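Reagents: none. Just compute today. Galectin.
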Amino acid sequence: MAFCSKMALANMGKDAIKIEDDRNLKNSYGDDGLISPDKEDISRILTVPFSGRIRGGMRPGKKIIVMGIINPEPDSFDIILTCDHKEEKDDEELIDVALKLSVRFAERQYLRSARVSGKWSEEEAVISYFPFIPDQPFRIEIHCEHQRFRIFVDGHQLFDFYHKVKSLLAINMIRIVGSLQITKLG
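Predicted 3D structure written out:
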């Protein structure tokens, strides 16, 4: 799967996520923040699979918010934060994955893993409950802290994932694939 080649900055200040579009987008209040395009733009801008650049990389205090709707008959979806993607690299196996969140509906699992220097970490699977419902909206927040990512779903902290990639600023790409529609991203 190729990363997007033409990208423009979603107008969210220095912490923006770049998306495939030529316009600056603001939230419904006209403030910098979550990307909230007009309805006719959603299918074109926030289509799945989605790929975008995290401007300035990650750092403690920064968060990524993904809002969307689960498909009516979902299989799975992934949210992947990667490092230093260069479009000329042909082998995606060389790209470090700081965090891969994998939602599996048949097994009712929310898996976490990372890949550093081509080697995947052990998958973490323990969760207190499975928060996703087919054909329903959701909000995932990925909070970056000094030692870990803290993951919230619909306002409830679900789990922590300790950093495997130590250079947080190098975490500068997000990919979203699978059985969902993205409605807002910031």
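DSSP finds one helix and 13 strands in the chain.
Action item: order primers for follow-up constructs.
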